[in-house]
């Protein structure tokens, strides 16, 4: 066999190995929450455009996500509110998951009102219960904030009921109320773009019903061994509040597909993105 033939075979073999690497698929599950949508699509853009992987996204409720990642049907979840808000899910599935660390360090949940509503704490909600039509506008039943809000209603003896919907439905109700300058209370959390769009306040919680968490990335057992480069990237991936808020607002403002907005944001923040990508 001459040298040229040997070189051709080696080149072909190299291309075959490369194509296998490029074809590696990362399965990421995410909830219908603003920060989860933003972070997940940004990670997808980086993995596909900068690191050569394929990414498959699945949207589901948090309980379903934890079970799917723990069972190996999904690889990664980027919006795990730990150690408190998602504690029941972690108690059930944590021994089948690996914690890859925080991607946002200071997650706040609670009851949120526009600043023009003249109260500052959760117990004061009873003063305006009639103005609120006796309701707290909530999100999905599987969210940790939903469980904590049920606890808050009981612990503070609120004359209110939680009306469950979804993240987008909650923000739509909030927008309608703010536009009309009407009172409303919603289950809210930071990071979320609504705090960059409206003047809002998180009501004081003297009984400490609503905890402070980190938004963490969790992966199925064995994922870091099988995809060490991706696992290291996800460990490095971390967004400051200003950056995440900017990304969420751009997504909310745009008529383009979320993936396109995330890709544009990635290209506009080259140095930050490069700092997350491991050199292995």
3D structure, described in words:
The protein is an alpha/beta fold. The chain has two domains: 3-107 and 213-276, D-Maltodextrin-Binding Protein, domain 2; 108-212, 3-Layer(aba) Sandwich (D-Maltodextrin-Binding Protein, domain 2), CATH 3.40.190. It is built from twelve helices and nine strands. The protein has helices spanning 3-23, 34-49, 62-70, 87-93, 144-155, 167-180, 194-197, 223-226, 228-236, 241-253, 258-268, 270-276, and strands spanning 25-30, 54-59, 76-82, 97-114, 135-137, 161-163, 186-190, 200-202, 212-220. Strands 1, 2, 3, 4, 7, 8 and 9 form a seven-stranded mixed sheet that branches. It has a two-stranded parallel ribbon with strand order 5-6. Helix 2 (34-49) crosses helix 11. The longest helix is centred in the first third of the chain and has 21 residues, at 3-23. The chain is globular and about 60 Å long. It starts with a helix and ends with a helix. Residues 1-23 have low confidence and may be disordered.
Brief overview, please?
The chain has 280 residues and is an alpha/beta fold.
Low-confidence stretches are 1-23
Net shape: globular
Q: What is the end-to-end distance? A: 35 Å
The total strand number stands at 9
Q: Please, how many helices? A: 12
What do we call the CATH homologous superfamily of the largest domain?
Periplasmic binding protein-like II
């Amino acid at each position: 066999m001459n040298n040229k033939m040997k070189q051709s075979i080696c080149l072909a073999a190299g291309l075959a190995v490369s194509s296998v690497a490029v074809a590696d698929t990362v399965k990421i599950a995410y909830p219908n929450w603003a920060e989860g949508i933003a972070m997940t699509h940004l990670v997808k853009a980086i993995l596909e455009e900068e690191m050569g992987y394929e990414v498959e996204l699945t949207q589901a409720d948090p309980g379903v996500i934890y079970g799917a990642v723990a069972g190996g049907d999904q690889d990664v979840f980027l919006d795990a509110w730990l150690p408190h808000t998602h504690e029941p899910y972690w108690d059930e599935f944590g021994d089948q998951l690996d914690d890859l660390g925080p991607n946002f360090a200071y997650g706040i949940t609670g009851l949120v009102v526009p600043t023009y509503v003249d109260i500052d704490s959760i117990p004061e909600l009873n003063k305006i219960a009639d103005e609120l039509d006796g309701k707290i506008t909530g999100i999905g039943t599987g969210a940790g904030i939903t469980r904590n809000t049920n606890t808050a209603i009981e612990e503070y003896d609120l004359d209110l009921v939680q009306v469950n919907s979804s993240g987008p439905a909650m923000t739509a109700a909030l927008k309608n109320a703010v536009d009309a300058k009407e009172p409303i209370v919603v289950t809210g959390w930071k990071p979320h773009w609504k705090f960059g769009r409206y003047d809002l306040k998180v009501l004081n919680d003297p009984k400490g019903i609503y905890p402070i968490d980190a938004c963490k990335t969790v992966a199925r057992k064995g994922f870091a061994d099988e995809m060490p480069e991706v696992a290291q990237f996800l460990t490095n991936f971390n967004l400051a509040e200003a950056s995440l808020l900017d990304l969420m607002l751009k997504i909310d403002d745009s008529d383009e597909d979320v993936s396109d907005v995330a890709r544009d944001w990635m290209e506009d923040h080259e140095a930050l993105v490069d700092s997350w990508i491991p050199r292995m």
